[in-house]
TrEMBL record:
Pfam families recorded: CDP-OH_P_transf
Cofactor(s) essential for the protein: Mn(2+); Mg(2+)
Any one GO CC term of the record: membrane
Family affiliation: Belongs to the CDP-alcohol phosphatidyltransferase class-I family.
Organism: Ecytonucleospora hepatopenaei
Domain of life: Eukaryota
EC number from the UniProt entry: 2.7.8.11
Protein's UniProt name: CDP-diacylglycerol--inositol 3-phosphatidyltransferase
Catalytic activity: a CDP-1,2-diacyl-sn-glycerol + myo-inositol = a 1,2-diacyl-sn-glycero-3-phospho-(1D-myo-inositol) + CMP + H(+)
Bilayer topology annotation: Multi-pass membrane protein
GO BP annotations, alphabetical order: phosphatidylinositol biosynthetic process
GO molecular function terms attached to this record: CDP-diacylglycerol-inositol 3-phosphatidyltransferase activity; metal ion binding
Length: 220
């Protein structure tokens, strides 16, 4: 009896989710609303002090790990959601670097390649009407490895942490306490360069994203 009740409850929930998808405009999908809120946080953060900006940025980045789960849970995966996710990630990192005055060569090249590669790759995926995180299945082995859920999570998390740490070091470099912690602590330095290596790997994958995007778009 318990199994029958459980199945009925699961069936009812599935029907409710399906009805929600049918009756809801894609603009107001729950994961898309999360995306709008992420953009709002970044916009507000621009006008705030560095301390509050990094807080807004951190919350926005944290929400990035929930919009995908919401999309799958509510069966609300959409091209719009993918666009919001991809663009907000890129714009967020750009704003972080601009706000922090990070204009070193590595940062500029990384941001340029990250934006260009993801835009090309996303456009090619959107044309095929597939999510950009699902368009890798018949592609380069490195890209397939990158889109493994654990690898992707690690790369995204580490690259975000790398630029957050870099931002903090750049803005608060006059703080003696921060200097003592970051410059004289071996563990902190090892952690920082670990984040740097993962970010380099993510940047390397962008080359494949760019090639795949250009290749697919050239066939249209």
């Amino acid at each position: 009896m318990d199994d029958i009740k459980t199945k009925k409850i699961q069936t009812r929930r599935m029907k409710q989710k399906e009805q929600m998808v049918v009756s809801t405009n894609k603009m107001f999908y729950i994961p898309n609303i999360i995306g709008y809120f992420r953009i709002f946080l970044l916009l507000i953060g621009i006008f705030l002090s560095h301390k509050y900006f990094i807080l807004c940025y951190f919350i926005s980045v944290s929400l990035d790990f929930f919009d995908g789960k919401a999309a799958r849970y509510f069966n609300q995966v959409s091209i719009l959601g993918g666009a919001l996710d991809m663009i907000t990630d890129r714009v967020g990192t750009m704003l972080l670097c601009m706000k922090g005055g990070m204009t070193d060569v590595f940062t500029l090249i990384y941001i340029f390649m990250d934006v260009l590669a993801h835009m090309m790759y996303f456009l090619s995926s959107a044309y095929q009407r597939i999510h950009h995180k699902q368009g890798h299945k018949n592609t380069n082995i490195l890209v397939r490895i990158y889109y493994n859920s654990y690898v992707l999570f690690t790369c995204v998390l580490c690259s975000e942490l790398f630029f957050i740490v870099k931002y903090i070091k750049k803005i608060f470099n006059n703080e003696n306490i921060l200097n003592n912690i970051t410059n004289n602590n071996i563990i902190c330095n090892i952690f920082y360069y670990f984040l740097y290596i993962i970010t380099l790997f993510k940047g390397f994958i962008n080359i494949f994203h760019l090639y795949m995007g250009i290749s697919l778009l050239s066939e249209i």
